[in-house]
Amino acid sequence: MFSFLRDWRRRRILRKKAIDEAVFQEALGLVPLLEDLEPDELGRLRDLATLFLAATSFEGVRDFEVTDVMRVVVALQACLPVLELGLGAYHRVRTVLLYPDRYRSTIKRVNEDGTVEEDGSWRAGEAWDFGAIVLSWEDVLEGARDPEDGYNVVLHEFAHQLDKLDDAYDGRPPVLPGMDAEAWERDFAAELEALQEAVSKRRRRRKAEPLIDPYGAESPEEFFAVLTETFFEMPIDLRQEHPKLYEHLRTFFRQDPAARLERHVERRKKRPEI
């Protein structure tokens, strides 16, 4: 009975709140990463984005006007990691706040002596505990523009929501069927330590920057979020340089973006020249 009602509601939303075709095509043009998807995957992603938009409010900050294209650009990228996991993974997300560009975030800390200390920094995005995602539209566009640079603020912030599925921001999302929890813990800890060491050596000796963004060395939760960006944007490189990490993420997300990219490259090679 309940599954019937859920299916009926889902079909009704997809019918009544379908994304306008012109808006969808314009949004796709701003997210070249999605060119790798097979037609059926893109269709399912569009449905997920439609359902996500129906359940999530978008608000502009500083009188920033949020357009339908902006909403769809964010929704398509946000739903890519949960293409096989389903929207239930984002059950906490209720609001997306869009700034026009980077914004200053101030955190207040109360010291033991009762004094209040403020720490401010410029940010491209944040994932709040109570169901809000904050994004800089300028960074959303920048992250979407180059699908091979390993930088995507939407993937990063929504990865934090996946991390929190087990009620903790600790870089360890819940163990799903097919995953080896012990191997996950062991390999992620070893790779995080290796990244921290690589970042330290780079600072001391001006070594080449590692494949995984150095920001991931900050903490386990940032490591997972940065890995999610790398997994979807630089999958072949990640599979080659960090095969264990790639396999864990492939099992968790139930997607194989490296194979998807390879198929896309082969299709492009076979296209007749005009």
CATH architecture of one domain: 3-Layer(aba) Sandwich
* Biggest pleated sheet: 4 strands, mixed
Relative strand content: 5-15%
Q: Helical segment tally?
A: 11
Derived structural class: alpha/beta
Spatial order of strands in the largest sheet = 1-2-6-5
Mean pLDDT over all positions: 89
Name the CATH class of one domain: Alpha Beta
What's the total count of β strands?
A: 6
What key phrases describe this protein's structure?
two-stranded antiparallel ribbon, alpha/beta, four-stranded mixed β-sheet, 53% helix, 274 residues, Collagenase (Catalytic Domain)
Structure description:
With 274 residues, the chain is α/β, with parallel strands linked by helices. The chain has a domain at 170-274: Collagenase (Catalytic Domain) (3-Layer(aba) Sandwich), CATH 3.40.390.10. It has helices at 2-16, 21-30, 39-55, 68-79, 137-145, 153-163, 181-205, 220-233, 235-241, 243-253, 257-270; strands at residues 57-60, 95-99, 103-110, 116-123, 125-127, 132-136. The strands form 2 sheets. The protein has a 4-stranded mixed sheet with strand order 1-2-6-5. The chain has a two-stranded antiparallel ribbon with strand order 3-4. The chain is globular. It starts with a helix and ends with a helix. The model has no long low-confidence stretch (mean pLDDT 89).
